[in-house]
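Structure ticket #2291
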Amino acid sequence: LRNPAYYVLVLEEDAAVQGFIIGSMEQLWYRKGRYITDLGFYVRPAYRGKAPWLFAKFLRWAKKMPGVEQITLGVSTGERFDEQLGKIYRRFGMQRMGGIYYAKVKA
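Resolution: structure written out below.
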């Protein structure tokens, strides 16, 4: 990936992909400035202990990007995963703000 506004990190162990985190740097819509958001974060159950490592590397990238004022993350996989991932996010200084709402749409 050659665009510095995007970040992709893959966890590869036992000769297979076991997890990943993908993020992007975006323009704030309400004023000048930038923010970082996650586009996807997944770790296979047997490798969930590596999730903090993946997230720490993502945060290092996010915090060194120029003009970034905030990091915004989402959890859209259900309450149980929100609790698990929330623990990791809080460990790294993140705070919960708001929630995610969705609706199914016929294709």
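Closing remark: The first strand starts at residue 6 and ends at 13.
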